[in-house]
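Batch job 17 of 40 flagged for manual review because the log was empty.
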Amino acid sequence: MNPARYLISIIAGLTLSGAPAPASPLSESTREDVRIMAGDVELGATLYRPAGSEGDLPAIVTAHGSAPSTRDGVGYYTNLALGLGFAVLSFDKRGTGESSGEYVPFSVETSDAAFRDLAADVAYSMAWLVEQDGIDETRIGLLGGSQAGWIMPLADMMLQQEHGITIDFIITGEGVPVSAGSEQAQGTAFFASLGERDVPTRADMLAGDQASYAYEGPTGFDPDPVLSASQTPILWIFGLSDWVIPVLPSIDALGERIEAGETHHTVHILPFGDHNFTNTSTGERYDLLSISRDWLTRQGVLQPA
């Protein structure tokens, strides 16, 4: 596969933009600390509502990356969702904060079982959320980044199959549609190319992406069957300066899906974005609020301003 395919810019759903993000509404939100049973695990969580909100609200559950993070660790996404006018449920990842269970660090070998546990936590959280007063269960979705790109589509499948709940959207920042093994191959090759240097180059990133393209080893968790079975609209956001994940293989994989008719996928590219959505040229964070609002409006989840 040729990495130059990422330059396909006329496939359905491909967009480019960038601007600094607005200030945080999180500090002004109302909050309710709750406990949620997720099978045999108890999750410590908080339900946030935008300040001054009235009536039934659209709702989001945030999902975690690979770190052992609490609900505060996904504060960026909680803040983003509140800024969009959503009620937000954020929980401590299992084995962290006030949540029971065991935190399992990422590895290819354990990824399949571990990701299913994490997806179940997200699914149970959404099942709890839609039962709460003031929640519009016809406008619900998932939001998260990095490892959450694997977890959220799997949680979506579990919600449909085990809870009878259909969500309306997924927004994933710097997540990948390739296997855990392919991502690990990218990281290994990237750091081998980087060596003792502190500042990565495009050559280092390309070395990682080429390793991901060529990888034929154990896959660990493979999202392909889950994505192939789903019709849920997904917004994928990638930064071309992100060396943490295999960006070009991910964009290519999604481009192939879109070209094959899976137009519920939208790919949004941040030309200079890193893994934290920072523009490496200007030092400012990209405006994911506007990006997400525009896409959610096109999906009919939010009303035009």
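Reviewer: the log was empty due to a logging misconfiguration, but the result itself is present. DSSP finds eight helices and nine strands in the chain. Unflagging and moving on to job 18.
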